[in-house]
Structure formats: C-alpha cells, structure tokens
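Every protein is a chain of amino acids, and every chain bends into a shape of its own. The protein below has been through that process, and both of its lines are reproduced in full.
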Amino acid sequence: MSLIARLPEALAIARLLSEEAEHAEKFLGLPLWIWQLMNLALFLGLLLYFIARPLADAFRKRQMEIEERRRHAEKQRAHVLHLAAELRERTARVEREIAEIRKQGQADGEEARAALAARADEEAARIRKDAGEEIERRLSAAKAELRQAAADQTASAASNILSREITQDDRQRLLTESMARMKEAR
C-alpha cells in the first residue's frame, strides 16, 4: 500500500482526532481552562483550609508562647536586677557598718587606753603616797627605836657610871627621896 492509498484513511483519522480534541477541550459544556481554574481554586482552598489555617494558628500560638516567655524573661531580668541592686545596697550598708564599727572600736580602744593610763597614774600616785606613808612610819619607828636604843644605852652607861661612882649611902638616900616624891604625887 502506498502512501496515497492510505491518505483517505489518514484524513478520516485526523478528522476523528480533531473532533475528539474539540470534544476534549470541553467538559460538560464548559471549556477545559475553566475546569482547570476551578480545580486550582479548589486545591488552593483545600490547602488553605487544611494546611494554611492550622499552620497560621500554630505560628500564632508559637509567637504568643515566645512573647509570653519574653515577658517572663523580662520580669525575671527586672527581678534579678532589683535583687542585684538590693544586694549592692546591702553590701554597701554592711561595709559602712564595718567602717563605723572599726572607727568605734578604735575610739573605744583609745578611750580604754586613756582610762587604763589614768587608772595606772592614779594607782602609781596611790602607791607613791602609800610608800611615802610607809617610809614615814618606818622612819618614825626607826627614830623611836633609835631613841629607845639611845635611851637604853644612856641608861646603861649611866647605870655603869653610877654603879662605879655611887656608894651605898647615896643609893639609900636616892631611894628615900624617890619614895617621898611618889607619896607627894599621890
């Protein structure tokens, strides 16, 4: 078969294909591009309903969680800053108190040292006074003892001298005179 003999058949097939192509370009009487557009709109609508909304809600929820965490972190940061400031204030107050205690301790120490020095001076003065009085007492006692010793020595020497130079008659006369004086004195 030759190509020409087949030409009427090919034309018949082409006509059938063109009718079919014309028929394929329409579905239920509407052009195919409208069906494709509606199909695309339906697909996009389903995507929007089943995927975009839940994703948007999830993103919105996540954004709110992040915002809540940020606010919470800001509150914690403010609290930490407040505590740090309070701690610095307390530390400064404690350091001031320590400095005051040191100053007071030094002042108290100086005061105690001055009081001890005054007490030591008073004690030294008292000891000097007591020592002076003791020296005076001992000196008086020594003088009295010296007088007594001198009187004893004088009496002993006088007794020795008298016993060598006084006779028995002189003794008798002295005794009589002493007795007479005693009677007069009574």
